[in-house]
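Inputs:
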Amino acid sequence: EVQLVESGGGLVQPGGSLRLSCAASGFTFSSYTMNWVRQAPGKGLEWVSFISSGSSTIYHADSVKGRFTISRDNAKNSLYLQMNSLRDEDTAVYYCARVVRPYYFDYWGQGTLVTVSS
Amino acid sequence: QTVVTQEPSFSVSPGGTVTLTCGLSSGSVSTSYYPSWYQQTPGQAPRTLIYNTNSRSSGVPDRFSGSILGNKAALTITGAQADDECDYYCVLYMGSGIWVFGGGTKLTVL
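Outputs:
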């Protein structure tokens, strides 16, 4: 059974940093592209970051470019999101999601809540 | 900046049929955007319903179907049930590892 379990969320002050993790199991993690998607309270879904299976290709949404960095450790079956210079508007539930062709999210974690507030 | 548009809300009677749409602020949605649809109930992670325009994800009942209608992607729900009442999101693949979600449609069944 495919499982994605996020962790690392919490309360952080504006300008602070946080590192999210996503532990994957039930599939060959190293073979799949992974993404982060977030959802602000009461708002819609927003794609955040993409990383290819071997980490050679990485993309970030303009809203987080230069502040967030996606990475992965295939030996540990883990996906990460390093978030720096956090802003109030980064407050959201962050989901990790597996992507398969033809280009859709087939499995989602349950999410981890990040709250940016002073 | 690409904006993906969805109806903010929609209402359907139990047993009725409803079609939700997914458009682009400029241009037409085609199969080349690989539209997919997700269902989300409050406090839960999204659930994949439809991918690649009209393919149903595993376990999704055939009451849910996807298509291209005119210049938009569409999600049609036939025989609406009470537990279909939740939020629906479409997302379009822009290429180069970038996706854009629509704002979501809140479906009411009453």
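Remarks. The radius of gyration of chain B is 13 Å. Residues 54 and 66 of chain B are 4 Å apart (CA to CA).
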